[in-house]
Amino acid sequence: MYVCNCFGVTETQVKKHAADGASTPRQIASACKAGTDCGSCVRRIQALLGRGACPTRGLVDESKPVLVEQLDEAA
After folding, report:
1. Cα separation of 50 and 29, whole Å?
2. Distance CA 52, CA 10 (A)
3. Rounded to the nearest 5 degrees, what angle is found at the Cα of 47, between the Cα atoms of 30 and 43?
4. Cα-Cα-Cα-Cα dihedral sign, residues 51, 62, 71, 75
5. What is this structure's pTM?
6. Which residues neighbour 69 within 8 Å (Cβ) at sequence distance 6 or greater?
7. Is 30:24 a contact under the CB 8 Å cutoff?
8. Residues 20-66: pLDDT tens digits?
């Protein structure tokens, strides 16, 4: 299934780049250009990367410490 129609990038390709270490839409874009033209695929890329699955993910992405108390509160 195509994720990015502009550049013909498939879901399989995005998952492969993620397995190779790409963990953000920007890193996926660097690897295959997906998300750099019209941008309509960025949310799908985020979903494939699992972004937003954890309420404290933003802290991790910003390299801020995640305290156990914050995780307990989120649960």
Report:
1. 16
2. 21
3. 65
4. negative
5. 0.66
6. none
7. no
8. 999 999 999 999 999 999 999 999 999 999 874 444 455 556 665 55
